[in-house]
Amino acid sequence: MPFPATPLARFGLFLVLFGAFTSVTLVTVSAADDPALDSIEASSTPKSREFGDFDVIPDLIPESGPVADATIDWTPAWFVTVGIVSVLTLIIGLKLNAFLALIISAILVSVLVGFDAGAGMGERMNAVVSAFGNSAAGVGIVIAMAAIIGKCMLDSGSADRIVRTAVDVTGEKKASLGLMISGFILAIPVFFDTVFYLLVPLARSLHRRTGKNYLRYLMAIATGGCITHTLVPPTPGPLLVAAILNVDIGMMMIVGAIVAIPSAIVGLAFSIYADHKSPIPMRPLGAHDDRHQPLDDEKLPGLFTSLLPVLLPVVLIGAGTLATTLADGEDRAAVLTTDVEDFDLLAQRFASATEKSPAGRLLASDQITEKQRQRLTRPAQNDVEQQAVVSIINRALLDPDYYSPEAFADVGIPPVAEKLMKTDQVRMKPVDRRRMNRALLDAAYPELIAAQRWDSPMRRTANSLGLWSNPNFALLLAALAAMLTFKIVRTLSWRELGVDVEESLMSGGVIILITAAGGAFGAMLSQTGIGDTIQQYFSGQSAAGIAILLLAWCVAAVLKVAQGSSTVAMIVGAGMIAAIMGGDEPPFHMVYVATAVGSGSLMGSWMNDSGFWVFAKMGGLTESEALRTWTPLLATLSIGGLITTIILSQIMPIAG
Fold this sequence. Notes:
This protein is mainly α and 656 residues long. It has 27 helices and 2 strands.
């Protein structure tokens, strides 16, 4: 296999291989001596019982002595290793097309999973196809529209107008800082990939103007977008981490932004270094990218018209995100004391509940303690006790395993619960989980608990924005605006415009295929069960103080390297850390544990991460170039976030 010639290239390749090696090594070393604690994935483990101050999992605790190596299945780690070696060898060693390499590696890993589970090979092939389809559904329209927006903004002069205005304000030397700040702000209400799609035309136009620093401009956008994507709500990842760790959303937003700022500055400094050490030329994304010559300044479209394709989706998506966040904050699925018809009868129902009944499932939830279970079986005598009862019920309604076919065999499943049960349970927001379980509880005991009143003026507002704030629709509107500007400025016929749009879609199609294949490969790595293996290993750990921050960062980093998704790494990692900590509180605010998890989820981004392919293909970089730029950039942001978190936790603990 050819070895990279430059030191930066060698460093990039080393970092990826080191991250892959670390992900396998950390789950294959001998387990620690501490008792295994409750797992976040309750669905994959038996219900816990009380053991001292901790909830422990009986199946993971030997009859005597510490957790043994035999309790952990190492097979998934080997499957992940095979997948890592396969994709790196095919792409870097054999120079195979990235789409083919990712699909072949995904099939290989899927087949290995099938052999281990005794599943049919046709079934495993269908799993790859299904994962590819799900990934394509998530990015297909967005990337296609982004390709149109990018080409139209460049060829119409819109990007040039924005860049000239920005350079006049900031100066050419600070242009990369402006791009970084733009990505930093826009990625708070909007997903990173959408922000990157919208700002790439500005980076390309800025390079055309300056004739240099193309890589710096791309990395500046990535720096700003990535760091807030993992640290600042209402982006789903940090929003769910805050909910899992019981951190106030406002506190998460403030501290997340404070942690993100120095990390972004360090990331920008690394971007400047990488561009100086190993500059990368701007390459055409399509066959005829240079068909239209640059326009004179007086012929460029106005600033508002130029900004419209960028501002339109940001405003629409941001408005929908804000309305949904405010509606979720109302928590209309929570049980109120006024919703309970008879507290005495409710206590009797809990006291006589069998294990295989809706009330029994609520009592058995690992979301509540034994003392809280006993409280539910005793009648509430006053307002304070009534409030305590409904608070315990609301806590139990966050259990991802509340529903079971046996317990609800005689209960008609409400449509809303049936719909929510079909969605991605890992990424489900707590408010939606409580809504799902509350609907089941209402259906089981209509005589005891009034039906939830989900609709509110704010929820109706959020629902009314559902179409307009959908990223696919918002970017479609932005693409139409960019096309119309392009047609008017260049005085094109509809046929000529159609030719340009078709060319942009052809280049976008390749990006869609590669990104979806990367998603399928990451999904197959997840299906190996590597998450459970990592979970079992770390469940034997215990830590306090700074050590818990290091552990939180490490757990999220290993999960990210293993399966590719920062959001999943954050959600699962936060749950694991919550289980490891039990009921103990660190000597600082829990928000720092949340930012440590968010920072760790940036570490080790490589070819199983869709963000890697978005950066590489939309930026016009090769796989090797992305490995030595994107991968170490995110590692820099990750380590910077961890260091900032540790420092803040010591000088500004906000304890209590």
